[in-house]
Specification:
Layout lengths: L3 E7 L2 E2 L12 E2 H14 L1 E2 L2 H9 L8 E7 L3 H14 L3 E4 L2 H5 L5 H11 L3 H15 L8 H8 L8 H13 L2 H15 L4 H8 L3 H9 L3 E2 L14 H17 L7 E4 L7 H8 L3 E9 L2 E2 L8 E5 L16
Helix pairs in contact: 5-8, 5-9, 6-8, 7-8, 8-9, 12-13
The structure holds zinc ion (ZN).
């Protein structure tokens, strides 16, 4: 018996090759199936209830415990993931961004994904962003373009420096109003002029979430506006959390004790106090490691990305620490 749990994080899970945006960074359904077979062979998939129970009562988890988590409530999860999990009799935990679902908007973070998937020439996008910044430099007291490029264009394990720059500058590098405006403009120009219809195609709706809950899946908090939560003051954080909790109730999830996954893995001490006082028992970040419910603080548990695990049912067990 053990205190360790491997938490795996998924985003898009779709039949990429035959989808409208084959360039989107996602996991192919076929590879998801392969990975799931690998997981079922080497791990014990636990439910969120079991994890909460183990934490609260200081119980052990089964050897090689693993928890499946799916961020952002994409329709992929309802159409492609839920039937497979249901078939296998295992649970997934799903984290919906409330505003995207109830107001039929597309999150900026997703607009950026689809802009990037629609435009091959990334330098062209950067030039367009710089042009807009030039226009607004005085109004928003921006520094020169060079400064931002140096600060944000740092390649990581998944993306080139150009892509990281576009993501970072549009997700948080610029003042919010200007970011929104640039995302809107590029999304309309390169992806779709009908944001509401696009949103309805991209995310699950309330009934689909409710259906998954009724069939044994677990729903957690992922914020209302999908903000970097540490950039908000306490009052705004409380608002984000309370709106999210209200939404949990709407889809039939309990709010006596609940779980959170921080958008972008971002949190601060104030937020931890806010959620602790409201019954949150487990929180997930995007820090990359196997979690240990005895050693780690349970409101900031690390997760692995799907790319950290093999996508082949016959692969040897890859031990990650
Ligand atoms: Zn998210």
């Amino acid at each position: 018996m053990s205190k360790e749990v491997t938490v795996v994080m998924y985003h898009y899970v779709r039949d990429l090759k035959y989808s409208r945006y084959p360039e989107i960074k996602g996991l192919d359904v076929q590879l998801f199936k392969e990975q799931l077979e690998y997981i079922l062979k080497h791990y014990n998939v636990v439910t969120m209830e079991e994890l909460m129970e183990a934490k609260e009562r200081n119980r052990d988890l089964p050897e090689n415990a693993l928890l499946l988590t799916f961020d952002d409530a994409y329709i992929d999860h309802y159409l492609n993931v839920f039937p497979i999990l249901n078939d296998k009799g295992i649970q997934g935990t799903f984290f919906p961004p409330v505003k995207a679902i109830t107001k039929h908007e597309v999150l900026d973070v997703n607009k950026i994904h689809f802009i990037l998937a629609s435009v091959g020439e990334k330098q062209m996008l950067i030039d367009e962003i710089f042009n807009i910044m030039d226009k607004y430099r005085d109004r928003y007291k921006l520094k020169d373009n060079e400064y931002y490029y140096k600060k944000y264009a740092i390649k990581n394990r998944f993306d080139t420096e150009e892509v990281v720059f576009i993501k970072r500058i549009l997700q948080g590098g610029l003042p919010e109003k200007l970011r929104n405006e640039i995302c809107d403009y590029l999304f309309r120009k390169y992806v779709s002029e009908n944001e509401s219809a696009f949103s309805r195609e991209l995310y699950m709706n309330v009934d689909q979430l409710r259906c998954m809950k009724q069939n044994g899946m677990f729903i957690g908090v992922h914020g209302y506006d999908h903000y970097w939560l540490s950039t908000l003051d306490e009052e705004q954080q409380i608002n984000e959390i309370e709106l999210s909790m209200k939404f949990l109730q709407e889809v039939g999830e309990s709010i006596d004790r609940w779980v959170v996954c921080y958008p972008y893995g971002d949190y601060d001490e104030t937020l931890l106090k806010v959620i602790k006082g409201r019954g949150c028992t487990i929180g997930f970040t995007t820090e990359v490691a196997v979690a240990n419910i005895e050693r780690d603080y349970c409101l900031t548990l690390p997760r692995l990305d799907t790319n950290d695990l093999p996508k082949d049912r016959n692969a040897e067990l890859r031990v990650i620490r």
